[in-house]
Fold:
Amino acid sequence: MKIRKELNRQLYQQKAYGYEKKPYYFDEAVLAAILGGDVETLETLIASGAVILSMGMRSLSKNELKNGKYHFVITATFLAESGIDTGLGHDEAYMIADIYSRKADRADACGELQILLQNMCLDFAKRISEIKKEDTTSFHIRKCIDHIYEDLSADLSVKELADLTNLNASYLCKLFKQETGETIKEYVTAAKMDTAQNLLKYSDLSCSEIAASLGYCSQSAFTYAFRRFSGTTPGKYRG
Structure:
């Protein structure tokens, strides 16, 4: 073991000075809100200052900003693993963590990491909340929703989804609206725009690449849809 001497020295110092490592990811109430999909409570906790990036319990770098970035990645991974235990998909959980970790890597100050942490916690909570609501849907609507999120570039027309579920198109539309509160078109558009906003914020993909990944025939068609949904253009949203 190449670091045995250093390991023994630090363990001795901890014991000599009574140092004790404690769980440092989140307060129990914060973690419960995230994993319970309780966005409202989480927003209240954020406003109260309860959601903070813990950096002092372990020293991973002498550079404060680097230390914060390392802790951010650990926290993001912890949230991904915890989210998976609540039903969040493996790939989706780690993708959220990876997107925010890359954003943290580009941060210039510890204050930016704090804001990113809050946003990441909210995104995990919102997605878990969506999953909990989706769990109450019928088999056919659940199948539609899964198909929508599996490939946002695919043909997600009413006809395609009706064929997928072997239901009459009119009946499917009525059932979908009844269970989700949205039409199929509204749901698909919201799913695409939510993904587009995250990609614009936290990825380096160009607008044309994002448009293609979401199934738009051109960048202008994507821009038109994005403006109608959000009130601004993709370029302005990205800032």
